[in-house]
Amino acid sequence: MKRKDIIVNKAKKVIDVILDNNFSYASACKMLRNKDVKLNGKVCKENIKTEIGDTLTIFYKEESKPYEIVYEDNDVVLINKFSGIESEKGVDNLLNAYAVHRLDRNTEGLLVLAKTQDAKQKLEKAFKKHLIRKFYIAEVVGEFKNYGLFTAYLEKDSEKSLVKVYSKKTNNSQKIETIVKPIKIGKESSLVEVEIVGGKTHQIRAHLAYLGHAIVGDGKYGKREDFKRFKETKQKLFAYKLIFGNIGLSGIDNKEFKILPKWNIDLKDKL
Predict the structure, then answer these.
(1) Which residues neighbour 87 within 8 Å (Cβ) at sequence distance 6 or greater?
(2) I want to staple 241 with a disulfide (CB 3.0 to 4.6 A). Which of 74, 82, 135, 230 is the partner?
């Protein structure tokens, strides 16, 4: 185990102090659980607030980076984000860059980060104007035979940390559009390509579940019996392709970036 002593220079919670020192959110939580954190010499078991001048001591093992760089220039960095790390307060801290969109903690794939304020503004504007197209691969429960654009209304329940999908607009709902294309259809499960227009919290996971085809391994939106049957602990959802329009960043303007998941399925000839 390695040891690191951190002098707190800004009053923050323990996990935030650890994140500021280039550790992932998952690693910080694990340190607390394993009692590998001391605050002023005493074992710290909870994510309490520190004070300026406190000494935070952490014990850790060398860990591999929770991402791999796919493309980088002076303005942006595109990474393959691995499962178990947040987009915000996770990879952006590790890379000293701004995550301009997000992936759920357990969703892997392409994530765009801005290295400058100018790039951040241009990328955020491009996402709002739908000048950047986002494509995913998902393994879903059952035979998914439909093809096309599916429209529904999504309502966020912050207290339960989930969203609900309805066929008609409700007072607090927002319209969502999800394009689904089957890649490989099977009786037990199917592979689909998903493109989202815009993008709301948990949109793909909740919308596919609403359509009767929850993502394999999704313990939040899938059925309990399916979760047990497939024995997958992480949702089989992967952000595999980004297509950029003309957004004012020469390195990525009008370019396409694509990576495939490391699943035991040959997708090269199908995508």
Answers:
(1) 81, 99, 101, 102, 103, 111
(2) 135
Q: Are 79 and 42 in contact (CB under 8 A)?
A: no
pTM for the full model? 0.76
Q: Which long-range contacts (CB under 8 A, 24 or more apart) does 230-234 make?
A: 230/141, 230/189, 234/83, 234/106
pLDDT tens column, 57-80: 999 887 667 889 999 999 999 999
Could you tell me which residues are beta bridge partners of residue 105? Answer: none
Q: Say which amino acid occupies 97.
A: A
The average pLDDT across 11-28 equals: 85
pLDDT higher than 80, residue 270: no
Query: Counting Cβ atoms within 10 Å, is residue 139 exposed (0-12), middle (13-18) or buried (19+)?
Result: buried
Name the least confident of 86-100, 119-133, 148-162, 254-268.
86-100
What domains appear along the chain, each with residue ranges and CATH number?
Answer: 2-60 (3.10.290.10), 135-238 (3.30.2350.10)
Instruction: Let me know how long the chain is.
Output: 271
Stretch 104-132: mean pLDDT: 93
- Are the C-beta atoms of residues 155 and 148 closer than 8 Å to each other? no
Give the DSSP letter of residue 123: H
Report the 10 Å Cβ neighbour count for 46.
Answer: 10
